[in-house]
Amino acid sequence: MEQSTKPIKTAVVGLGMMGGSQIRNCLWKLPQYEITAVCDPFSPNLDACRLLFSERGLPVRCYADHREMLDGADCELVIIVSPDYTHEQIACDCLAAGKHIRLEKPLATTPEGCARIQRAHEKSGRLLQIGLELRYASPTKQMRDWQPRLGALKMLTCDEFRPPFLPKRGMVDDWITKKRYTGGTLLEKNCHHFDLFNWFAASRPASVYASGDGAVEYADTDVLDNAFVTVEYENGVRAMLSLCLFAPKKVAGSSLNELEIGLIGNRGRLELRGDDVFVWDRETGAEERWHYARENFEAHSDDIIPSMIELADCIRNGGEPLTGIRAGINSALVAFAAERSAEQKRIVTIDEIERESGLRFIV
Prior knowledge:
Blueprint: E1 8-13, H1 17-25, E2 33-39, H2 43-55, E3 61-63, H3 66-72, E4 77-80, H4 87-96, E5 100-104, H5 111-124, E6 128-131, H6 138-146, E7 153-161, H7 179-182, H8 185-188, H9 191-201, E8 205-213, E9 226-233, E10 238-244, E11 259-265, E12 268-273, E13 276-281, E14 287-291, H10 301-317, H11 325-344, E15 348-349, H12 350-357
Parallel strand pairs: 1-2, 1-4, 2-3, 4-5, 5-6, 7-10
Antiparallel strand pairs: 7-11, 8-9, 8-15, 9-10, 11-12, 12-13, 13-14
Helix pairs in contact: 4-5, 5-11, 9-11, 11-12
């Protein structure tokens, strides 16, 4: 019993905005974790993190290479918050070293990369959690709890209207605006939302049709800044994503939301607007509202904390994370199909992506 309550010795790889936020706002607030090592090849990030620990009087070992960290650091869990294009190699190396991992979304930037991580995971026997924290967010959990009140689910919608990507500093500046480093906007940005579609629909997606361009914000790059994506599921559910990356930033007092999600069934309707959830009953016309009083608005911290609590419990007591390798693969498969559809202007089936990659969508 004493062993199971000891903090989990943890290393963090990737110390940019998201990595730094997860250290300050999540890991340091959870007694389940003890950060023993940090790693980033970009020296300004590593130096800033070293200073952060020094100011708090906390010991930590600092590395510029994750392989040297795996050889020298005392850790059983590695939290990977590095740029998308590095996920595949770092994840495979950590799994080969016998480490549990929490890997930021997306799983990898190519179907082949996802398949490689899947093989490494199966061989390792370690736990893997994907950072699809919207499943753990209190508002979407409330929607999941109320979903049975809708009857048979028929339609899903997700509208994300937000400002452009924040600038990224690192070994490749602004890597997030280059498809070779992200797999495309619909993978990098929207695998979160495709994961929610899969979760709510509880069925295998059959086909995807997407249309979009980058003519407003990313005309000089090869990523999308606006798109529509329609996903048809085998059980008859249809899902629609609307994305815009040149909308104004939401300010205090504004009625506009950066994210809205809707579910419609034969008996009712659910809507998420910001941090408010509404449910409407078709028969009675009654409407109910639920509000989440968010405490921390930085980098999804309030949503990430519950996922990290779950991960610690899985490491100590067994079990699989809600967003394990299956969720990572399933959300990526829809995103890969969407990126291909937008590029080739045709319907793309999930079967097509599966045949080429060896990946399988598992409900």
